[in-house]
Amino acid sequence: MKITQSRLKQIIREELRALRQMPEIADVIEQGRNSMDLVEITNEIGALIVQNHYTAIEDHDEGIAGVASDVVAEFEKVLMPYMNDYFGDAKGHADKLGTTTEWLEEAIHDELKELKDEYVP
Questions:
Q1: Residue 121's CB: how many other CB atoms inside 10 A?
Q2: C-alpha distances out from residue 9 to 16, 31, 36, 71, 116, Å
Q3: Least crowded by CB within 10 Å, which of 5, 7, 53, 89?
Q4: How big, in percent rounded to 5, are the helix, strand and coil portions of the chain?
């Protein structure tokens, strides 16, 4: 089933509103403060997005990049200490955000693949 680009954007906006109301993402970031690095936290967030918003992104790969970007932007302030710790001064602010967004997009793709492999014989 195909949907229009405007409908896809509406779905993503609705999902992002729901994400902002999900304390789990903020909790993962907070709980990982002393025990997880940026990669681990990014993977956890990707898993949460897929577990809670699978239907909105299931067949719309072009929407995953937008979701990842918006999630990183939404949680930029609390993720920045992890980015600074992981990248140090080697990368500028925009590069840190870009790389983290790419990693989150990859985490979402990986989690979707795992989920599909689990349910497809």
A1: 3
A2: 10, 31, 32, 15, 23
A3: 89
A4: 80, 0, 20
pLDDT digits (tens, 9 = 90+) for 31-79: 777 778 899 989 988 988 888 766 656 544 557 887 888 888 888 888 9
Using alpha carbons, select from 66, 76, 64 the residue that is nearest to residue 100: 76
The CA dihedral of 94, 70, 105, 64, to the nearest 10 degrees, is: -140
- Distance from C-alpha of 9 to C-alpha of 14, rounded to nearest angstrom: 9
Q: How far apart are the first and last CA of the chain?
A: 22
What does DSSP assign to residue 105? Answer: H
Tell me how far apart the alpha carbons of residues 52 and 69 are, in angstroms, rounded to a whole number: 17
pLDDT, greater one: 28 or 94: 94
Closest Cα partner for 25 from 80, 69, 74?
74
